[in-house]
Amino acid sequence: MVSVDNITVAYGGWELFKGISFLVNPKERIGLVGKNGAGKSTLLKIICGEQQPTEGCISKNGECTIAYLPQQMKVNDTATVFEETSKAFQEVLALEKEIEHLNREIASREDYESEEYLALLHRLHEANDRYFLLDGANRDAQIEKVLLGLGFKREDFQRPTREFSGGWRMRIELSKILLKKPSLMLLDEPTNHLDIESIEWLESYLKEYKGAVILISHDRKFLDNITTRTIEIMLGRIYDYKVPYSQYVALRKERRAQQLAAFENQQKMIQQTEEFIERFRYKPTKSNQVQSRIKQLEKLDIIEIDEEDNAKLNMKFPPAPPSGKIVLEVKEAGKSFGEKHIFSGANFVLERGDKIALVGRNGEGKTTFVRMILGQTEISRGAIRVGHNVKIGYFAQNQDDLMEGDFTVYDTLDRVAVGEIRTRLRDILGAFLFRGEDIDKKVKVLSGGERSRLAMARLMLEPYNLLILDEPTNHMDMRSKDILKQAIIDYDGTVIVVSHDREFLDGLVSKVYEFRDGKVKEHLGGIYEFLESRKLNSLTELNKKIIPDTTSNNSQTVQSSNVSNKQTFLQKKESERILRKMETEIKKIESQIETLEQEIAEMNRQMASPEEYGINLQDGKFFETYEQLKKQQDDALWKWEQQSSELENFKKKLLIEE
Fold this sequence. Notes:
By secondary structure, this protein is α/β, with parallel strands linked by helices. It contains 21 helices and 18 strands. The chain has helices at 40-48, 81-86, 90-107, 115-133, 139-149, 166-180, 196-208, 220-226, 245-280, 287-299, 366-374, 399-402, 409-414, 425-431, 448-459, 478-490, 502-505, 527-546, 554-608, 610-613, 620-657, and strands spanning 2-11, 14-24, 29-33, 55-60, 66-69, 184-188, 212-216, 229-234, 237-241, 326-337, 340-351, 355-360, 381-386, 392-395, 466-470, 494-498, 511-516, 519-524. The strands form four sheets. It has a six-stranded mixed beta sheet, with helices on both faces. Strands 14-15-16-12-17-18 form a six-stranded mixed beta sheet, with helices on both faces. It has a three-stranded antiparallel beta sheet with strand order 2-1-4, with no helix packed on it. The two termini are 40 Å apart.
């Protein structure tokens, strides 16, 4: 469908990537991963035609259409949300105007037998056919479904787009792309401005989507739930895995270990061969063997180990100064803007060392509540009391926008640092991967991930005992998020995190406060316990709505119940049969993998000591057999990954049905 052919991108004497090629097939779900600055966004821009490569080209078939959602965009402010979203149906809108015009023209004419009249009828027929083919009659319903799914309310539909923040404008652009239904959808960090419910809705939508998707995301769970293939960009090269992200991480680690083992065995063999050559080089009786070994080394394909980008953040929050036991006390706090009610009934006590999460749909008041704690917004009702000796450090959701674009990286820290720490600014920036000439870059040319790192570095300039982090992982790559998460876990102060990143919150917080429908509700436990409870609550509400009236038609209800129970029993038996079959198949594959691993290990031992085993390494059949075993192992591992994923999904489905 789309072919990336030998693409190279160079800036002066520096190459972002060189000679990369891959094919995008119909209906594929591809996760594009790599550290910040590896070139992921650049590659998407090249595929959609916004940027030209230094070398190489992009090929696509004639019917292929591509839509691209960038990280940052400009949205026109001249229309309402509904009108702007309707622009996804440009052809449908044009057809509606044409059909209206044709109907008026036909109604005004009386030359029923003329060629012009017949031509008008013919064109009207064609336009109507095309209109119904594009499902134009359901346009409004489709727009409503997507906008509601992405978190908009019906009363938002007629509001001007200029009234919405950048995150909501991104949702408008995303809704237009979803409604266009292109052959290939390119999504660059689509979850950055989505809440958990909208992310789950988008997951469901993309799973059912008929076209192909290339997705950049630092949300591990989102990638795992959608993608079936992972392409990694590292040090200018790509590595292609036909598995979702978590399985790719395991396979990548295994591939690296296999490469290293084969490299070490080969190096050992080379050393032994060279020692033999040096020892018997001048002995006539061994000359034939020496020459044979020399030719063997000349023909040998040297095993190379893939380079690894080991650059990573060195993040550690300064020790928290002592504070009182009660860090924050909230009593019946609420907020309204005029007649618009945001939330009320917030009640909790935050003690020293607590780590909690604030979650909920966008617009429910999470960031407003944070600003109330900071004193930046007045409280409409109730009270918020900050404890004794509490010093608050705040990472704003729009932190990168608050930095001056014309300042350099170094100046951004230098202007807020005071005291002795100013002598350590270069070390701090180096710990956040700003090294050498990077510190002289202007903020406005930094990527989203680089700006987030810089904002986090600025937070490290002085010690705090209460950290409030509003969407701190936006634009951060996987490794940076993991390092930030560990730094927060190790931090001895108190933390409030506003985030939609499920994997990031997992194991980090012990309480979740949900902002929903104008209320604030406490949930004890981690993020997945909260999500599970939300599903149970939703199911309970659903069950309440569908409970039948048992006061009449009792016998009919019993009969229907018996039929339903019988169907449930048969379905359960069939599910158990399928489950057993899948588990048996996986065990067979595991046995095959174990046998192959033993055979490969034996051949590795033989390569390490060929004389001991009487192996002639010049014999091409030996290495041919070795490569065949390795290929069989790769195929078996791939099959095992697929079958295990299918088994896991099947088990989840059974749990949901139960």
